[in-house]
Design a protein that fits this description.
By secondary structure, this protein is an alpha+beta fold. It has one domain: Roll (Nuclear Transport Factor 2, Chain: A), CATH 3.10.450.50. It has four helices and seven strands; from the N terminus they run αααβββαββββ. Strands 1, 2, 3, 4, 5, 6 and 7 form a seven-stranded mixed β-sheet that branches. β6 and β7 form a beta hairpin. The longest helix has 16 residues.
């Protein structure tokens, strides 16, 4: 038996969640944290927004330039919460598409396409990569990095 097969069998026997083909059972609680964040953003609820983050969490918009390079600008939780508070309630509608998730003990990541509407008007779309940590009070966002585009998005009907 090859070394890779042995490692896989050992991981299975230790309950590490490895299966033939590497599939994992999604943890709905991980996706629920991001859904709660988006609901808080829609309501312009700063307390609920802050509640889904670790205190030292980061929000990282990754902006592409015309030259093909990118810049990552990190925001603290306080800065992101302030942004959420500036939006009128009901004006920011963000939705998840095509989520993919990995979980290993107290660490999870959720990768997904998203779109944002300002009420019923399309604003932008992109890809979001969220890293979460399991805490005694549930999953919390450690970091959230995302791209943003106004063209080339998959078409979804307006909310």
């Amino acid at each position: 038996m090859t070394r890779i097969k042995w490692v896989g069998l050992i991981a299975l026997s230790m309950g590490l969640g490895v299966s033939a083909g590497g599939a994992q059972t999604p943890d709905n609680a991980v996706t629920a944290v991001v859904e709660r964040l988006f609901a808080a953003m829609r309501a312009s609820d700063t307390a609920a927004t802050r509640a889904v983050f670790m205190p030292a969490g980061r929000v990282i918009p990754i902006q592409a330039s015309a030259a093909g390079t990118s810049t990552a600008l990190g925001l603290s939780v306080d800065q992101f919460v302030a942004f959420v508070g500036k939006n009128a309630a009901g004006s920011w509608i963000e939705r998840i598409w095509n989520p993919s998730q990995r979980v290993s003990g107290p660490l999870a990541d959720l990768w997904f396409d998203y779109d944002v509407y300002r009420e019923t008007t399309f604003d932008h779309c992109g890809v979001n990569a969220v890293q979460l940590q399991q805490t005694t009070s549930g999953w919390k966002i450690v970091s959230m990095a995302f791209t943003s585009a106004t063209a080339g998005c998959d078409s979804h009907s307006a909310p």
